[in-house]
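FW: tagging you since you asked about this chain on Friday. Here's the raw sequence from the shared folder, copied in full. Didn't touch anything.
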Amino acid sequence: MRHARANHAPPGVSARAGLPLATRPELLELAHGDVLQLRISPVVKRLGDTFVQMLGCNGSIPGPTLKVRQGSAVVVELVNDGDLEVAVEWHGPRLGNGHGGLPHETKIPVPAGGRFACHIRFPDPGLYWYRSHLREDDAKELGLYGNILVIPADPGYWPPANRDVVLTMKDLPLAGGETAQGSTVLVSGEPDHSLTAMICEVVRLWLTNTSSSQVFNVRLPGARMKLIGGDNGRTEHEEFVSEVTLAPFERAVVDVLFGQPGKLELQHRGPDGNRRLATITVMNVEAIPQLSRQFEVLRTAPELVAEREFIDAWYDVPPDMTLALIRGMDDLALSWQWPPHDSGRVKIRLVNTMDSGHTVYRPSHPPGAGRFLVLSRDGIPEPNLVWKDTVLIQTGQTVDILFEASGPGPA
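HL: got it, structure written out here
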């Protein structure tokens, strides 16, 4: 059995806190059977002229990006070098409750000075992430999160791209626990993130909204965007888009074609205007190979086309359960205790009844239990299917989902 381990942070120490300075996340490629040690410890992060104490994984914020192959299984040993108990949720992979469920209910948090081995398998390709699942108002806001990139077994699963770029987007809370929507935003842990690209280069952006409440409307004026995937893999139909909307915990996979040299901005379109998320410098150099022609092709996913035919029979079926979202609820965590149909699936109706003077978005996700397809929104069939673990529900909206209870259950 091969053990993989990230390097520790360099010996730079903040004079203010006597803690290591946070580093940028590494990309760690893991093979089937590997064991990775993730050490959770306090670090100091520089945000402009301010030094902030946060929690790092292996010294970085966000934590390292894990790259694994579909069908593989690894062991991640969590080592808690901090002074708070922690519990980590592996968001998206279908896991047993003991490794992906709720703290104090299906798994025991890791105490300060303790350690816990998480056995994780990856049956599905796509983009997933890990995060604090205990005292989220503290630990996740302090930097305890990171991405998992699952490479498909089928080499033709995704269209061709020149390069992969993994980006997390996070709003940072203000002092006193106030909301930070519209204030400080970290992209891959940085308040002023920057990238480079080449002419005719197709860059695949793997986007994750790691915020607790901020919805991001992501756009990139001056370049062309093609949506190819969501939470748990590819979309039914690839489509050209001007922006993608990401609720907290949601992911999107977007191919971007850069046509001209110059400086561009990855932006969030908010109610008060556009906000820069990252600066992209397109160099006056042409990419090799050039994938412009392949970028123009809009492909379909045959497995989701087949699902479309299968779910036609579910539209007029009464829901097995109706859940109303009310003010004061935490992110929805359901107790899956009813028997699914013979197909292993259950129809659930989610109704956002929260009363507000402005549009309210509500993320809902079933941790570790399985995945779902959105059937319809306010009775209108979903036009582009994708397997999901998080859904955005606007005020007054009704969303029907078809949940597949395919997680392994207790473990």
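FW: The mean pLDDT is 83.
HL: agreed, and Helices lie at 97-100, 292-296, 302-311.
FW: great, closing this out.
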